């Protein structure tokens, strides 16, 4: 017979969401069992956010060295040691890993089980030969790279985000299928580190982002030497000697591309298999686990958070979900998710950040009953000083100034979007941003200037001029 463990909260999955629930719950006095069949830290630490940003940092460093002459600095030829760049990636992972480790969570008071979890009934599961009975369960099993049904794919070797960071040799020619954030970030990093790169996208790149801002990213990606095929369908892949041949169809014509490595970046699939969800009374489909606004599954004693729900697949969303679950599971508060102010960033250079409604979505919802203001990086003194003038900020409001959304494409866009996230979450009006005192010279002035531009039509109107002239006549 297996050991029986009775606990308050059982968390399945030690990625960012699961770890947040476990750490929060145990420190608030709950008994917690944490189950993970793979690496602690999940996708974000080991194969996602952290390694991709570390590799991008290496690529950007190489690019900055090559282009230093624009500041009057001569560096000579830049030599890239790709293996050492990957060593940097793994050193970053290793530096963060102790924070997510088994030892740390056991020190916090969690019972950590390293094994595969499977529900056997609506109130219990088994893992590593143990039976766990809990008052509440939290499924945080995340997602994995989705493998598209491409003819011939089973006959070639390919990479995903789960394997590409183990590659220590710079590809001669990296072919990437998928033009979302992962595809674009890996394209730019590898191009800057010396690889030839081709991106194939069946629609347009970054389809969820503001089209005007995507145009800026597209221009910079192509200017760096990346070949981009949009609205292109991948027909088949095959081996040609030691090369991988990809045949695509674009505008009615077949095009053949050959490369040394193939990366699939075609989206994510939720990890719902082999969990015994039917036995647990949890409804799910290929898109993920069904949850309500309180993140409860169809079994009200079981919650699901993060990528496995098929919603917004960002690490920060998993962390946000964790807070909702803790309020519901521990404090019995009917907390509900609110996605009106969720930011996301694509970490290319330039970065592209968005929060709230973009212009297209705002027009679909409100028609022409919106106002749109922009401000260019080229009008910012700090951007000029750093030769980072590519990009702009766009803000969408109601006619009365309530902020509906903001997007930024340019240097440090991911850092700059935070203040707009706060503004939208607190239902602020544009005047609050216009009244901010921004230190000079900073890129942060972009937000203030964009907000100020909202008032330009009325502030410098003929009506205002008449009022000023009248008041001046009074002495």
TrEMBL record:
<dbReference type="GO" id="GO:0003955">
    <property type="term" value="F:NAD(P)H dehydrogenase (quinone) activity"/>
</dbReference>
<dbReference type="InterPro" id="IPR023753">
    <property type="entry name" value="FAD/NAD-binding_dom"/>
</dbReference>
<dbReference type="InterPro" id="IPR001100">
    <property type="entry name" value="Pyr_nuc-diS_OxRdtase"/>
</dbReference>
<keyword id="KW-0520">NAD</keyword>
<feature type="binding site">
    <location>
        <position position="307"/>
    </location>
    <ligand>
        <name>FAD</name>
    </ligand>
</feature>
<keyword id="KW-0521">NADP</keyword>
<protein>
    <submittedName>
        <fullName>Dihydrolipoamide dehydrogenase</fullName>
    </submittedName>
</protein>
<feature type="disulfide bond" description="Redox-active">
    <location>
        <begin position="44"/>
        <end position="49"/>
    </location>
</feature>
<dbReference type="Pfam" id="PF02852">
    <property type="entry name" value="Pyr_redox_dim"/>
</dbReference>
<dbReference type="InterPro" id="IPR004099">
    <property type="entry name" value="Pyr_nucl-diS_OxRdtase_dimer"/>
</dbReference>
<keyword id="KW-0285">Flavoprotein</keyword>
<keyword id="KW-0676">Redox-active center</keyword>
<feature type="domain" description="Pyridine nucleotide-disulphide oxidoreductase dimerisation">
    <location>
        <begin position="342"/>
        <end position="450"/>
    </location>
</feature>
<dbReference type="InterPro" id="IPR036188">
    <property type="entry name" value="FAD/NAD-bd_sf"/>
</dbReference>
<dbReference type="InterPro" id="IPR016156">
    <property type="entry name" value="FAD/NAD-linked_Rdtase_dimer_sf"/>
</dbReference>
<feature type="binding site">
    <location>
        <position position="267"/>
    </location>
    <ligand>
        <name>NAD(+)</name>
    </ligand>
</feature>
<feature type="binding site">
    <location>
        <begin position="178"/>
        <end position="185"/>
    </location>
    <ligand>
        <name>NAD(+)</name>
    </ligand>
</feature>
<dbReference type="GO" id="GO:0050660">
    <property type="term" value="F:flavin adenine dinucleotide binding"/>
</dbReference>
<dbReference type="GO" id="GO:0016668">
    <property type="term" value="F:oxidoreductase activity, acting on a sulfur group of donors, NAD(P) as acceptor"/>
</dbReference>
<feature type="binding site">
    <location>
        <position position="53"/>
    </location>
    <ligand>
        <name>FAD</name>
    </ligand>
</feature>
<dbReference type="InterPro" id="IPR012999">
    <property type="entry name" value="Pyr_OxRdtase_I_AS"/>
</dbReference>
<keyword id="KW-0547">Nucleotide-binding</keyword>
<keyword id="KW-1015">Disulfide bond</keyword>
<feature type="binding site">
    <location>
        <begin position="141"/>
        <end position="143"/>
    </location>
    <ligand>
        <name>FAD</name>
    </ligand>
</feature>
<dbReference type="Pfam" id="PF07992">
    <property type="entry name" value="Pyr_redox_2"/>
</dbReference>
<feature type="domain" description="FAD/NAD(P)-binding">
    <location>
        <begin position="8"/>
        <end position="320"/>
    </location>
</feature>
<comment type="similarity">
    <text>Belongs to the class-I pyridine nucleotide-disulfide oxidoreductase family.</text>
</comment>
<keyword id="KW-0274">FAD</keyword>
<keyword id="KW-0560">Oxidoreductase</keyword>
<feature type="binding site">
    <location>
        <position position="201"/>
    </location>
    <ligand>
        <name>NAD(+)</name>
    </ligand>
</feature>
